[in-house]
Design brief:
Layout lengths: L2 H12 L1 E6 L4 H6 L2 E3 L1 H10 L4 E5 L2 H10 L4 E3 L15 H10 L4 E5 L4 H5 L3 E3 L4 H7 L4 E5 L2 H10 L4 E4 L5 H4 L3 H10 L4 E4 L5 H4 L4 E2 L2 H10 L4 E5 L4 H8 L4 E4 L14 H10 L8 H17 L1
Helix pairs in contact: 1-14, 3-4, 4-15, 12-13
The structure holds (~{Z})-2-methylbut-2-enedioic acid.
(~{Z})-2-methylbut-2-enedioic acid binds next to helix 3.
Length: 300
């Protein structure tokens, strides 16, 4: 049987849903019930009646989904699909920061391990990071783990004292000013849209800076016809689908996250068949991370 039909049949038999991050391979996005950013997908999973979720993304995303749906079975088809950025900080690092900066509040980007979220005051996404930092009732902030996103927030909230952690995303951070200048000269009529995980020198050249959802929304409402996209290449699939009359160029062919690309159709079929790999989060960690996520919803 054709593998996509097999996946469909297994989904029905198991009463499961498949969700896929914007950075997944095209064929994974095509078989998914929902495609989007990680927090959007985690919220959708919490609202659905299905008790089994196949999360096509990376480890921290499946963890966030478990935190919001503790009684559901959350499966990550490729157990080694991790996130280099999330792995650049540990819960012990957060303990040390708390000792060093006792009167600072910790704002933690969603791209982080659950154990780090649990020790933070509030979580943020790349869509709401500026708003969260602005609204939190403390002028002293530690922002972690992404330095580039932190710098972007710092520039937009100059009135606050913000200490940054030195983490970065390999896929966004390897893109330099020269790559952006070249893409702009190759496509002089295109707008440059970049993710805030990009370096400051790239952000400075952009026409728009935003999360994956904000980039998609920007394109939909823009009268422009051509766009250079400065985030992971997988997003081109939704952009082209939603805007068939517009043209898209990836900022650099190197904008590929190898972790996101680990999930292929056979991984999804195996995940459904053998109910693997189940993601669990320690109860104390889960409670702490839930508290920090709820705080994000309140102040964001
Ligand atoms: O949290 C997400 O989904 C990521 C990695 C980025 C974004 O901007 O959507």
């Amino acid at each position: 049987m054709d593998i996509t039909k097999e996946i469909q049949k297994l989904k029905e038999e198991k009463n499961a849903i498949v969700v896929a991050h914007n950075y997944q391979n095209k064929d994974i996005q095509e078989i998914a019930d929902f495609v989007g950013d990680s927090f959007y997908l985690s919220k959708i999973c919490a609202q659905r009646q299905e008790k089994m979720i196949i999360f096509c993304g990376v480890y921290f995303m499946a963890e966030t989904t478990k935190i919001l749906s503790p009684h559901k079975k959350i499966l990550l088809p490729e157990i080694n699909a991790g996130c280099s950025l999330a792995n650049m900080i540990t819960a012990d690092d957060v303990d040390r920061l708390k000792e060093e900066y006792p009167d600072y509040s910790i704002v933690c980007y969603i791209n982080s391990p659950a154990s780090v979220k649990a020790k933070s005051d509030v979580i943020c996404t790349s869509s709401n990071a500026i708003k969260i930092v602005r609204n939190i009732p403390n002028n002293k902030i530690i922002f972690l783990p992404d330095r580039n996103l932190g710098l972007f927030v710092k520039r937009n909230v100059p009135e606050k004292d913000i200490v940054l952690w030195d983490g970065f995303c390999f896929t966004h951070s390897k893109i330099k000013k020269d790559d952006a200048l070249k893409a702009k000269s190759d496509h002089p009529d295109a707008l440059l849209l970049v993710h805030p995980e990009c370096r400051e020198e790239v952000i400075e050249l952009a026409d728009f800076v935003g999360s994956t959802k904000q980039i998609i929304d920007f394109v939909i409402s823009s009268p422009a016809k051509e766009f250079i996209i400065g985030t992971e290449i997988g997003i081109l699939h939704s952009l082209k689908n939603l805007n068939p009359e517009k043209r898209f160029y990836i900022l650099s062919q190197r904008m590929i996250c190898p972790e996101m690309k680990k999930t292929i159709l056979t991984s999804v079929r195996e995940a459904l068949l053998h109910e693997k790999y189940e993601i669990n989060v320690d109860e104390n960690v889960l409670e702490g991370a839930q508290r920090a996520l709820i705080k994000m919803l309140k102040i964001g």
